Backbone:
């Protein structure tokens, strides 16, 4: 803060300077004491000046009508660039739910377009109606040598971004870098520590000894716990737990049930969404959804609010800026009528009313993304059905199958025996064994990786996406090669997007022209398109809640057990390419 | 940590490298989960590798005999240079009590000898058997224009020290600088925030509005709460509370009783000593004393331990280094047999046994202090009894009296009517109104400030000290001018120390030749001398528990209500010099 501004704040605190705003007649949830106190909130510039009303005068006085005032909620780990919306448009869905701080790891745009992409994504951060803090992507690409990406962030780029004032941490570092003793990544952790910042972990699927080795790497937390057993093992090793509820990663209930039963200390627990599509946010909520679910499970409302606010701010070392409604912090405030079910009535950001009654009340900054981000898809393979043919000898082959785990990001390594017809492997649509392909899209080498997937449930057609973690090549799953090719072609034509095809025709699509990741349309339009796409998917036999989210994760080469990139099938534990065919025993 | 060391740690975590030490058969207090788990502690280099025993081999295995293992305790705010001991010698009294981290504000030596003094004090920090982290003195001198000091720390010096790797915060910034909108000090807070570090507060005696204004200054905590009402008001304003038990500042009971009764969240509470003499540490303990007292008052042992460990580490943003027994953190460990009364049996620091059964088990680094620190006392006034004469007209005068508050650092502004004899004001020994003087000792201007004090209880003689906060001129309280002069002379002869005189003779003394603050002798010798001095004091009628600690604070010009410096009597609230005489109404 500029010294002149600091002086004004102190003067205002002393009652010597008129406040901008005084919200009177409220009950303040104090996350430091854990108590609710009647009071007021005095605001100057963008900060809280006082929780008291006595003796203060203000340019504007608002009657809080006895409502509760809570600090704005914090999403501690989110890939803003995998919500399908721009940071600007995201405001319309998260702000009405009371989220006023996003700790965002812009890994996706960095994989597509490197540090220039990252800069472009966060360029609007000072104009947004929420705090956008950066978790610097630690691993771009995620799986060097095992995937093709558009951009890279080396040690020097990471150092540079770590020094930005709105950077709060080194983003999720996956185990292979740490356990593989990769110098570049250990150096990134070291730089972050020297700058007083934490390093976020990412520990899906590690056994006890691997987890121990990983923790020795200097990481501070994990957001990949799927149940209580995962969570308590992380806490025992000194990792804070960022409990996650995304579109297809549902971890809260299984973790919190155990926390409540065992009476675990909650001060190292907080919330995140990681990856949540806007239709799901609109339908059920954002961090408020997690807070309410926790309360409904028996957690004290104050403790749930602490998890969504001060716990997060303290862990990320920004408790002097956000996480509480106390002097000097940003005036990010939720007003609501009940603590049993928290429904934000008014939301203030930096002292300004930004949402009321579920609706955004401010204009968004205009979208301004550089031209290079609109031209990122250049596909060679995958537009011709023949590209998807898998030749084989004999009458049957045994293949590895990536089996989806409903509502989780992890998958299972399964196996199937598939028929061979006319020297090519057939899908087993009855058995829900579909073909899965990842097509290189950066115009670099025209690669294609093909394997099999179980869990999508399609009986006809194909679906595809240019959002496919973390490399963001084009991923496509289908019952037949013709519809798969149509989807890929459509995605190139749109320069990124989601597509669904059936009977040799494109059925529906959602263009995502910004980096092939984000729409340049309003959240309402995107949500409408997503709902329509999901309905089409279900008409084709689909069974998943968030099929395009699941599709985007199926290719991830760092989350167990299998991944698929443009280079082929990945054994995540071994961090190596393997054949889709199972060798004869 | 060097990358090579980090790699070793990870390798050890994976079981690929032999540990230095494995402490087996223990029950680990996990401060993250709040639970006790059976386990082991594997250590490599100076760090914890694992809380598990499975599969690990070690060069040395120790049987923990079923004992509890807790993280070493943290003193969150201490003036190491006002313990009378050097940092080296301090080890012998704190380590056996389980304190393995001192967050030290070396304000005293900085007032005496500036940044060179500070550097000399902490020069041994890498060789000490405890972690010495620096809270950078924010206000040297404490009361510019109202006192004479030997050194100063301006914005540039503070910036420099804030960048050191073992610096954790900007040290206690007193209200006058913040509420007075002093640019230099607000800039120090800003620099600290930019470096990702917190700024410690110091808010004794502020009313609600002043406190609010102060909090707007960007401070993070306070260690000056004397009771629950103080503490809850700080928490409400977003200040963490560093609960203090020093030699003459006893705040724990009054704060904790209220915390327990009201069910206040404890995650923003931690412990400190601020100023505690080695005889008191030896007699009752250090942070362990506070932990045990808290447990005896009804706090859960785990919560008390959290307050002494992780809460402190997290608040000061060093939870990646200390505060828990988890991978990657320093192996600072207390082993003890009970959690009901915690008596450290073994203490490990950085993986090495440093105390057992109440005794230090390691050699201390040799004392190496530069010559300039041994030559800091140069007194003009005060060696001649006439210097203490206070001339007055009439038969009686009304004077301001600094009245001690037992066991607290604050004092009361009282008044007395004193007789005038032969044109000079008389003490009122029956009424315990003694003369108090502060003598300039840096050879700069030969100033002397004189007023009156109540609470020492002396019936004969005088006591004096070259430790007198924060300017550290020579402070002397007495029943007569002759004994006062003898004390001052003795302190100059010793180049610093404590002295007690009676009947025109020096009765006893303790030389403190390092900066006039610290002894170069062993802790045992210092404790012996202190006990003897205290006995002499009591023989002369004294009633205080820690008279030299009380004496050292009586002159402080920043703690209400009155202070006394070499320039005269200070109205702390108004931050200005006032006459000792009360004008006629």
Residues:
């Amino acid at each position: 803060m500029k010294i002149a501004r600091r002086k004004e704040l102190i003067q205002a605190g002393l009652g010597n300077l008129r406040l901008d705003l005084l919200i009177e007649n409220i009950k303040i949830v104090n996350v430091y004491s854990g108590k609710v106190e009647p009071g007021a909130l005095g605001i100057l510039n963008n900060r809280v000046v006082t929780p008291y009303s006595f003796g203060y005068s203000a340019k504007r006085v608002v009657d809080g009508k006895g409502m509760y005032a809570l600090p704005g909620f914090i999403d501690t780990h989110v890939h803003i660039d995998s919500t399908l919306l721009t940071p600007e448009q995201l405001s319309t869905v998260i702000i009405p739910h009371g989220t006023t701080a996003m700790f965002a790891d812009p890994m996706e745009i960095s994989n597509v377009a490197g540090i220039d992409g990252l800069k472009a994504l966060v360029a609007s951060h000072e104009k947004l109606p929420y705090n956008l803090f950066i978790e610097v992507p630690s691993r771009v690409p995620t799986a060097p040598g095992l995937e093709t990406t558009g951009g890279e962030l080396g040690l020097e780029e990471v150092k540079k971004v770590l020094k930005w004032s709105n950077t709060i941490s080194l983003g999720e570092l996956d185990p292979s870098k740490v356990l593989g003793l990769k110098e570049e990544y250990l150096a990134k952790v070291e730089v972050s520590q020297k700058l007083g910042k934490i390093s976020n972990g990412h520990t899906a699927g590690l056994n006890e000894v691997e987890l121990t080795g990983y923790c020795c790497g200097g990481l501070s937390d994990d957001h990949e716990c799927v149940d209580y057993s995962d969570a308590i093992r992380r806490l025992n090793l000194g990792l804070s737990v960022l409990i996650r509820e995304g579109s297809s990663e549902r971890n809260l209930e299984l973790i919190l049930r155990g926390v409540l039963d065992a009476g675990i200390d909650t001060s190292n627990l907080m919330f995140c969404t990681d990856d949540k599509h806007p239709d799901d946010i609109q339908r059920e909520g954002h961090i408020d959804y997690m807070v309410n679910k926790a309360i409904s499970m028996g957690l004290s409302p104050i403790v749930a609010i602490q998890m969504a606010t001060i716990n997060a701010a303290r862990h990320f070392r920004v408790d002097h800026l956000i996480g509480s409604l106390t002097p000097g912090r940003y005036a990010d405030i939720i007003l609501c009528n009940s603590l049993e079910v928290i429904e934000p009535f008014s939301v203030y950001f930096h002292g300004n009313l930004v949402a009321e009654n579920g609706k955004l009340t401010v204009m968004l900054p205009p979208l301004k993304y550089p031209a290079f981000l609109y031209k990122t898809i250049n596909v060679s393979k995958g537009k011709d059905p023949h590209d998807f043919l898998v030749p084989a000898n004999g009458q049957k082959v045994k293949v590895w199958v990536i089996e989806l785990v409903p509502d989780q990001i992890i998958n299972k390594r399964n196996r199937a025996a598939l028929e061979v017809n006319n020297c090519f492997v057939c899908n087993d649509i009855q058995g829900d064994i579909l073909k899965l392909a990842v097509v290189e899209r950066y115009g670099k080498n025209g690669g294609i990786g093909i394997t099999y997937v179980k869990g999508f449930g399609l009986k006809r057609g194909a679906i595809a996406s240019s959002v496919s973690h973390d490399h963001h090549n084009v991923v496509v799953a289908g019952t037949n090669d013709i519809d798969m090719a149509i989807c890929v072609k459509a995605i190139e034509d749109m320069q990124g997007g989601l597509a669904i095809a059936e009977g040799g025709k494109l059925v529906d699509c959602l263009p995502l022209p910004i980096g092939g990741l984000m729409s340049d349309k309003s959240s309402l339009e995107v949500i409408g398109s997503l709902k329509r796409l999901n309905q089409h998917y279900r008409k084709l036999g689909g069974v998943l809640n968030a099929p395009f989210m699941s599709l985007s994760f199926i290719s991830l080469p760092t989350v167990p057990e299998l991944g698929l990139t443009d280079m082929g099938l990945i054994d995540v534990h071994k961090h190596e390419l393997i054949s889709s065919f199972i060798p004869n025993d």
Observations:
- Chain A touches chain B through 75 residues (CB under 8 Å).
